[in-house]
Amino acid sequence: MHSLILRCDKAIFQEEGLEQVTIRKFADKAGYNSATFNNYFLEISHLLFFATMRSMQDYTNELLVT
Question: What is the greatest pairwise CA distance in the chain?
Answer without folding.
Answer: 41
